[in-house]
Amino acid sequence: MKRSRPRSRAHSLRGRALVALLVMAAAVTIALTMPVRLGLDLRGGTQIVLETKSTKTTKADREATDRTVEVLRGRIDALGVAEPTIVRSGDNRVVVELPGVQDPQQAADVLGRTAQLTVHPVLGTAEGTGADAEAAEGEKGERVLPDEEGLRLRLEAPTLTGEDVKGADARFDQQSGAGWQVTVDFEDAGGDRWAKVTGEAACHPAGDPRRRVAIVLDNKIISSPQVDPSVACGAGIAGGTTQITGSFSDAEARELALLIKGGALPVPVETIEQRTIGATLGDEAISAGAWAAVIGTALTALFIIVVYRLMGALATVALLCYGLISYAALAAVGATLTLPGLAGFVLAIGMAVDANVLVFERAREEQAARTRPSTRSSLTAGFRSAFSAIADSNVTTLIAAALLFFLASGPVKGFGVTLGIGVLASMVSALVITRVLAEFAASRPAVFRRPHITGISTTGPVRDALLRRDPFLMRRPRRWLAASALVMVAAGSGILVRGLDFGIEFTGGRLIEYSTTTQVDADRARDALADAGFPRAVVQSSGDGDLTVRTEELTDAEAETVTRTIGELGGETEKLRDELIGPSLGDELRKDALLALGLALAAQLLYLAVRFRLLFGTAAVSALAHDVVILVGVFAWLGKPIDGVFLAALLTVIGYSVNDSVVLFDRIRELLAGKDRKASFARLTNRAILQTLPRTVNTGMGAVLILASLAVLADDSLTDFALALLIGVGVGTYSSVFTASPLAIEMYDRGAGARPARRKGRGTEKPVPASRAERQEVS
C-alpha cells in the first residue's frame, strides 16, 4: 500500500499535466487563428442611420422610434454583434454603430426589414399569374399575393400575427432530407388559433388551394403548405408549432428565424446613410491604458513572487496561462473587447491570484502544524482544504454570470460572458496548471532539501503578527454593524443630497456632425473640447474626413462653444447635423439588467443557504447591498458620472464582494465541524477572520496594484473605472469582515442559525457535518 500511493500520485500528476497541455495547446491555436473583435472605442466600426416612416395607422413619432430601437437591439444581439451603440436621433432617426461587422450590407438589410409576420387562410386562386409581389387589397382585409411558384393566391384577413409568436429557431432536417427549415412556436392563444385555421383548411380535399395556409412576411408569401391528409377536419394541428420550409441556406434560415423571433418593427424604416467611423478613444488613451495594464500586472506578479517565492513564480506562470486561456475563449465565442473590458480582463488576472493565495495559505497552515512530512504533502493538503472555498466562490459568480447572459441584453449581457469565461479560466489555472507546476517543483530533490525557497515553509509576517496578538475583533459585533451603518448612511445620503449624474448612455444628449475645410484629428478635437469644458464629449471621425461630437444635453451657448472650438482646429466649419439623441442604455435594457441582477442575488442567496446556512447567505447578500450603496453614494458625492463604464465596475465589485464573504464563511463552516465547535460562535467567527486575513490582504494587494496603475497612468476614460473598483475592493474587503461577520453573529444569537436541537447558551449547537469536499482529497 505504501508503494501504491506515490505511484497513484504520479499518475494523477501526469493526468493533470496532460489536461493542462491540451488546454494550452487549444488556447494557443485559437489565439493565433481567431483574432478578438475590438470595440467601437478601440477600432471604430460601421455606422448605419435609419429613418422611421409613418404608415396609414401608425405615426413615426418619438415613441414609435423608441420602440423601434428596442426591436433593433434584439436583432443585433441575434446577429451576434456585441457591444453595439443604438440611439434615437431626433424624433424619427436611429443611429446604429456596429463594431467589427464582417458584412455591413447584410447587417443593414436585416435591420431595415419590417418583419411583419401574418398567417392567412387561402380562399383560392386569383385570375392570372405573374411575379408581381404587390398586394392587391380586397374587401374585409382580403389580399392577393403570389406564392413561392408565382401562382397568385387570394388570402383571407390574417388569423395570426407576429405578436402570437413565442419563438423561432433555424434547424436542419436530416430525417426527411428537407434541408434547412424554421420552426415557429406560438403563444398559448396563438396555438389555439393555429389549430383552428389548420382545422378549417383540413375540411377541403387534397389538392384544393383552400387546403393551404399562407405564411406571409412583409407582404411576401414565404411558405404556403397544404395541411397534411392525416389532420382531421375541424381538429387542426395541435401543439402550437409549425415549420416553414423552402430552399433555405443556413444563413437564410437563421436570418428568417431572428427576424420572426425579434418581432416586427412598429413602423417601417429606411436606410439613409451607411459609413465607416473611427474609434471613440484616441491612440494615446489606448496606449496609456495598455501600459498601465502591463505595469500593474508586472507589479502584481512581483508582489506574489516576493510573498510566496518559488510558488509565487509558478503561480505567475499559471496566471499568464490564465490570460491566454481567457483571450482564446473570448475569441472563440466572438466577444467584443472594449477598453473597460480590457481593464476588467487585466483586473481579473489580479483577482485570479485569489485561488492561488487560498491554496498557498492553507499549505502554510499545514506546514506550520507539523502534520505534513514534506512540502509536497503540505501542498496536496492545501489544495484539498481550499477546494470547497474556491468551488463555492466561483459557483456563486457563475450563477450571476449565467443569469446576466440569459436575461440581460447589450453590454450587461456581454459582461456576463466575460465574467463567466474569467471564472472558468481561473479555476483551470489554479486547480490544474498551478497544481501541476507546484507539485512537480516540490518533488524535486533540490527543493526538498531547501524548503525555505518554496515560500510555504513559514507562516508569513501577517499570520505571525495575528498569532502573537490574537485580537478578539468580534467581542462587540454591534459596534461594527453601527459603524457600517453609519458609513453607508453617510455615503448613501449623497444620492439624495446631490443626486446621480447619469451619463449620455442613460440620459441621451446631443449629436453634432461637422465638415471642415482642414481635416481635424479626433485626438486633437477631444483635447480641445476637454479644455473648453466638455471632458465627456465623445469624438469620432466619420465618413470622408467629417467629425462627429456626442455630448450631454447642451444649451445653445454651449453648442456654439463646441462649434467654435472645432472651427479653430479645422478652419471653415459646416454643421451637417445637429440633433438630440436618446439613451443607448434604454428603459428596456435597464429593466432587463435590474431583473437579471435581482434574480442573480436571489440565486446566490439560495445557493449559499443550501451550501452553508440561510444566515450566511443573508449576511453575504446584505454586505453586498452595503457595498453597492457606498460605491454609488461616493460617486454621487464626488459628482462622477454614472455611465456604462461605472456599470461594468459595479458588476465587478458585486462579484468581488461575494467571493470575500464566501471564503470567510467556508472557514467558519469548517471550524463549526471541527474540534473547536464547542466554542462560542463569535469566538469561532473571530478565529476564522484571523485565519483568512492573510489571504484577504494578499488578494486585495494583487487587485489594488493593478487598479492603482490604471488610476495613475491610464487616460481619464479609465480613471473613473479604476477609482470605482478601488473603492469597491476596499469596501468589499471591509464588509466581508466587519459587516457580514457581525451580522451573522447577531442573526445566530437571535436563533436564525440555530438547529432545532439547540439548547441554552452559545456553542451547544449540533455540529454541522463536514461536506464531501471537506472530507475528500482532490486528486
What does it look like?
By secondary structure, this protein is of the alpha+beta class. A hairpin with a 3-residue loop joins strand 19 and strand 20. Helix 1 (4-33) packs across helix 6 (283-332). The longest helix has 50 residues, at 283-332. Mean pLDDT is 81; it is low at 129-136 and 752-779. It is a multi-pass membrane protein. This is Multifunctional fusion protein. Residues 753-779 are annotated as: Disordered.
Rounded Rg: 31 Å
Largest sheet: 7 strands, antiparallel
Strand coverage percent: 15-25%
Structural class by SSE content: alpha+beta
Quickly count the helices: 22
Any idea what the shape is?
globular
The end-to-end distance, rounded to whole angstroms, is: 17 Å
State the total count of DSSP E strands: 22
Helix content: 55-70%
Instruction: Give unreliable regions as ranges.
Output: 129-136, 752-779
Average pLDDT, rounded to a whole number, is 81
Question: How is this fold's topology laid out?
Answer:
Elements: H1 4-33, E1 37-38, E2 45-52, H2 62-79, E3 85-89, E4 93-98, H3 104-112, E5 117-129, E6 136-137, E7 143-146, E8 151-155, E9 160-161, E10 165-173, E11 179-186, H4 188-201, E12 213-217, E13 221-223, E14 241-248, H5 250-262, E15 269-277, H6 283-332, E16 336-337, H7 339-368, H8 375-407, H9 410-442, H10 445-449, H11 461-469, H12 477-497, E17 501-502, H13 504-507, E18 509-516, H14 522-531, E19 538-542, E20 546-551, H15 556-570, E21 573-581, H16 587-611, H17 614-638, E22 641-642, H18 644-672, H19 681-713, H20 716-738, H21 740-749, H22 772-775
Parallel strand pairs: 1-16, 17-22
Antiparallel strand pairs: 2-4, 2-15, 3-4, 5-8, 5-9, 5-12, 6-7, 7-8, 10-11, 11-14, 12-13, 18-20, 18-21, 19-20
Helix pairs in contact: 1-6, 1-9, 2-5, 6-7, 6-9, 6-19, 7-8, 7-9, 7-18, 7-19, 8-9, 8-16, 8-18, 9-18, 11-19, 12-17, 12-21, 14-15, 16-17, 17-18, 17-20, 17-21, 18-19, 18-20, 19-20, 20-21
